[in-house]
Amino acid sequence: MKDILGKHAADKISNFNGVVTGYAEYQMGRSEILISPVVEANKEVKSEWFPEERVVFIGSETVCIDFTETFNDSWLGK
After folding, report:
1. Measured distance CA(29)–CA(51) in Å, rounded
2. d(CA 73, CA 39)
């Protein structure tokens, strides 16, 4: 996998932008990047998949997402 998770990115056509939260590489050669918009806490996130060739990266900063509050033992039913 490419070292792109957590990078800021945008779609060249729609200008949809946010943080890269996923990457899919298919056997037939096409790759897609999942971009999640930056939203306030506890807001619904509507991420979108884009073909890799349509994505441009913005800056070099990497965002680290902390899932400890989202995926804790109570979420797992423990």
Report:
1. 11
2. 24
Q: How many residues does the chain have?
A: 78
pLDDT at res. 39:
79
Which tokens belong to 63?
Answer: 């965002």
Burial of 9 (0-12, 13-18, 19+ CB in 10 A): buried
Q: Which of 28, 27, 24, 16 shows the shortest CA–CA distance to 51?
A: 24
Q: What's the predicted TM-score (pTM) here? A: 0.76
Beta bridge partners of 8: 19
Q: Which residue has the higher pLDDT, 39 or 20?
A: 20
Q: Cβ distance 49 to 33 under 8 Å?
A: yes
